[in-house]
Structure formats: structure tokens, C-alpha cells
Amino acid sequence: MDHQVEQSALRHPPVVLDTDSSVGALPGEIRLALNDDWREAIRFGCRQGVLQSCMRNLTSRMPAAAAHGTVFMGSGDFHPRSWPLIERCAAGRAPASLRVVVLDNHPDNMRFPWGVHCGSWVRRVARLPQVSHVHVIGITSGDLGAAHAWEHNLGSVWSGKVTYWSTGVDTRWSRWLGLGARFRSFPDRAALVEAARQELAATPMDTYFSIDKDAFSADEVRTNWDQGVLLRADLKTLAQALHGQIVGSDVTGDVSVWHYRTAWKRWLSAADGQDTARQDKELPQWQARQNAFNWQIVELLDAARAR
User: Fold this and answer.
1) Is 201 exposed, middle or buried (0-12, 13-18, 19+ CB in 10 A)?
2) Which domains does the chain have, with CATH numbers?
């Protein structure tokens, strides 16, 4: 699929929340930029109030949630912004009437007592009364292993509102806590995708679809994070399973360079295996491939969106 998506063919224009200059031009886009102070403040993690202030600045300039398409947010470091976007989409809905599907290589449901960061935002979404369930699909990260069990916000899992879908990770420890049904482990990528497809197609309901491209193989696209095993064809499969159900969507996982001025962010980022300050000579090629993938995502999710 090439860059031939015509603006007139899109029912809902994409929105780019430009916080790191990583998202290339998209068909019919609405682009909203933030200055460097905001970029530093919200990247990776921040206090809850800081994130909410930033998002008020942006959503006040956005069309109504029903009038725009997929929101592109740059690096996966900005994934916490999905929470206020989902909250915006959920406003006015009946309790338990909105499903959230997240493609991610990480559970994003970990503890973070100082606010919200890119690994903890799912807990906030699961607490929204309008959200019936959060499915995090495509996890291959060791974050699901026994060594990290204490880091999870297991309350969201115990309550039955969060399910992890993974492959290649030993999650047997979850059975000891009676959580085996919420840690769905598969022998390989194909089995995971097929089970997810069946689940989503068999239980249709309004769905918010959040994509972090670190869930995809590095052979498909490069990100700032360790990556999973999904293929572009898998996204098409899942989008088709959600045809007519998607009422909101966002994308992170574009690749960018950033040197944190904040010492604790440099430390936490490095502890998570990142080196965002290093500019690889292949970065332009990675970003070009990212942009081509983004055009595909725009078309797929616009076609799958509820009418």
C-alpha cells in the first residue's frame, strides 16, 4: 500500500499532536504543535495535573471527538496521553459501554506512585466507569514475567477489567494468584492474533483502539523501545475484526531523538533500556518507513470506524 490515500476518501481526518517532530505528513491531517517545555514536561512521565493541563491545551484546539479520526502522538513515550483521549471519548457514555483494545509490547499497567508514565496509564483507563474492559494485545516483554509481578497494578486485573495477551513470556506465576484467565498466553504470534480476532469479532461493541508500534517486529518498523513480533498483516486482521466498532483511536511508537533535561527521566529511561539522545545514522530511513506505515493505519482505521 503506497501514499495514495486521498483526502476526499477519508471520512474522519487524522490529528497529529506534534510533540517530537517524528510524525510525517498525513492525508488531510490536523496538526497541533507543542513547544519544547511541554515536550520535556510530559515525555515518558509526569504528574497527573501536568498531563491534564497539556491535554486541555490540545483538546481545546481539536474538533469534537466524533469529527476527527486517529490521533498520532509520536514516540511511545507519549502513550499516557491515550488516557485523557479515551476519557474524552467515553464522556457521556453509559457505564461499561466502551471497550479499549491496546496493541503494545508492554502491559502499561505498572505501578508509578509519582503520577502517570508510559508504563502505568492503563490503570487509569481501567478505572473509568464507562470502560468495560481493556485488552492489551501483543506483549512479549519480560514485564509479564515473575520477576516483575510486584510492579503490576494487579487490582485492575483482579477486578476483571484488564486482560493481557502475550507470547514468548512465562506467565505461570499468574495462576498462583488465581489470575490465569487474565494472562492469556499463546505459543506463537499467529495463535495470539487468531484468538484475539475471534474474541473481538464475537463480542462486538464500541471500541477505542490504541496502537503502540513497539508491538510490531523491528523488521516491520523501528521504535524507541524494545519490540514485539506483530506484523502489519496482523493489524489489518484485527482492524477488520473491529469493523464498524471503532469510535476512537490513537497511535504512538514513532521514533525520535530527545535529550532529557530532567535527571530522573534520564535515569528511568536508561533503566528501561532506552537511549533517546543517540541519533542513529539510519533514523531518516526509520522515520520514512514509519510514515508509510502511518498512511496504512490511517486508511485501515478510517475504514473500520463506526458510522
Assistant:
1) middle
2) 7-304 (3.40.800.10)
